[in-house]
Amino acid sequence: MRSITMKPPHMEVVSKYHLTREDMLQEQHLVEAAQRDPEQFRSLYNRYYERIFLYVWQRIDDKEVAHDVTSQVFLKAMQNLYKYEFKGVPFASWLYRIAKSEVYTVLRKQQVQRTVNIDSAGMGNMVQEMDEDPYAEWMPVLSEAVADLNEDDLQMIEMRFFEKRPFKEIADILEMTENNAKVKTYRILEKLKKILIEKKKNRA
Known about the structure:
The chain is mainly alpha-helical. The chain has nine helices and two strands, in the order E-H-H-H-H-E-H-H-H-H-H.
């Protein structure tokens, strides 16, 4: 089940993907220190907890469950940190992939309702990308169409328009190329545009 909520995100999603070279090196040192000594993992936990929690909470609109899932994400990250290899992208991308998997597990096993938090600005940006009419008239139709997307398409739209993540970050989280992320996003927008056009025809 999905619940569409028209409201701003619980907290502003600020992408920290575009790190400086110095920031990336510092991050790499923190990870390597934690790989040598598990006690050092706390610095990574403190650095990333809020971002990962927000990602989970946006999808599971139950704060207590979201905290539990986030704790599980960091437990798995700590247990599997020895497998992590620095590949020139932020460590957060690896954590987001674990979080994505944990969210799906909880949704499947606990039958928790999948939540999609949308906002008017994100919807407006979607309609602009589709070169459609002012979006206010079609907001209910577009909201329903977004809710009906399959999970892969939905998370692409969520991250791009409601969490305002750059394509490169989306690509790293979803383990695809940046170009593929762009192509998939615009194909999804074409699907949504066809739905709006069909609705307009039915009202004419």
